[in-house]
Design a protein that fits this description.
330 residues, ABC transporter involved in vitamin B12 uptake, BtuC, 70% helix
Length: 330
């Protein structure tokens, strides 16, 4: 007699839950949903209104774009502290190109179609500088990018003398508003996810972060990988500066203060290991949204600066501690 094939047993609810929780982004996704629910209750629904959630998306777009670039560096076990300095430098140079109020290097007001590529190019070039110092001179990324951070603010002050640049073209406002701003953020994240998951460069990034020596012995040019990831981070910082300028329709020195810490927090909370070699862009997006929800809630609830710094610091420490515990448990 022919054997009767045994039918697979249907999955139980417990097995389904176990499979969901086993996914590396499940915890951060559940945490994001839970925090939104709790904050909605505390604020009596003020944090989940349509207008406020739209504001969270717009704010998270700037942070999220910077976090995407930061993730490339952290995946190689490096850091980019220059994010806000590079971003504000790109912001001020691009803003000055579009107005005649300050030191316009062109001599005439440029259109956004000229200023935006210039802002992105500024970010990418300074990222290349950081990458060259790290990869060619073997300088610590923290020291290099801290120096570039300071230089960026110095150049921004030189261009504007510390004064805000206003009266930008009205057509420029579309990039930082709904739905364009969030679309740019999610598109950049999707492109980064594709690169890291499906390309040879992505595999080189994970290999260089997991074990630089093993990556080198397997034929991977680790130095060039470092150079490219810092260029990507600089490019994303320039894009973040552009989005912030468009959102406020002004270039201001203080607009991106703290972006470097927010980008690192988004990446670490999203599950990217500070030791390199592990993590993905889905987690980074969720991490950026979580930071955005918390920042917005603290503003809605009128929490003072002291409380904001304490909460953000505790989140970063908790995320790093969780990363260390995960590594010990492997």
């Amino acid at each position: 007699m022919a054997e009767v094939a045994e039918r697979p047993k249907p999955s139980t609810a417990r097995e389904v839950v176990r499979r969901v929780l086993a996914h590396e982004n499940a915890v951060i996704g559940i945490a994001l949903a839970a925090i939104i629910a709790v904050l909605a209750g505390i604020s009596r629904g003020a944090t989940v209104t349509r207008g406020n959630m739209a504001n969270v998306l717009i704010q998270s777009s700037v942070r999220g774009v910077a976090a995407v670039g930061q993730a490339f560096c952290i995946l190689t076990a490096n850091f980019d502290l220059s994010v806000s300095g590079v971003g504000v430098m790109a912001m001020m140079l691009g803003s000055s190109m579009m107005t005649m109020e300050w030191r316009n290097i062109l001599g005439y007001p440029a259109s956004p179609f000229m200023a935006i590529p210039a802002m992105l190019a500024v970010g990418a070039c300074w990222g290349l500088l950081s990458g060259a110092l790290v990869s060619r001179l073997n300088m610590p990324s923290l020291i290099v990018t801290f120096g570039v951070w300071q230089i960026g603010y110095g150049v921004a002050y030189y261009v504007t003398e510390g004064t805000a640049i206003m009266e930008l073209p009205e057509s420029f406002a579309v990039y930082g508003a709904l739905p364009v701003g969030p679309i740019i953020f999610f598109s950049v994240a999707a492109l980064a996810y594709f690169v890291l998951t499906y390309t040879s460069f992505g595999r080189r990034v994970y290999a260089a972060g997991g074990s630089p020596v093993s990556a080198y012995l397997s034929g991977i040019n680790v130095k060039n990988t470092y150079l490219v990831v810092f260029a990507i981070s600089g490019l994303c910082a320039g894009l973040a500066g552009m989005l912030m300028t468009s959102r406020g329709m002004a270039g201001t020195i203080e607009a991106l203060r703290g972006l470097e810490l927010d980008s690192i927090a988004s990446v670490v909370i999203g599950g990217v290991s500070l030791f390199g070699g592990r993590g993905n862009m889905i987690g980074v997006v969720l991490g950026a949204l979580l930071i955005g929800v918390i920042n917005n809630a603290m503003s809605v609830l009128h929490m003072g600066h002291a409380g904001r710094y304490i909460v953000k610091g505790a989140i970063i420490i908790g995320a790093v501690a969780a990363d260390i515990l995960r590594r010990r448990g492997r």
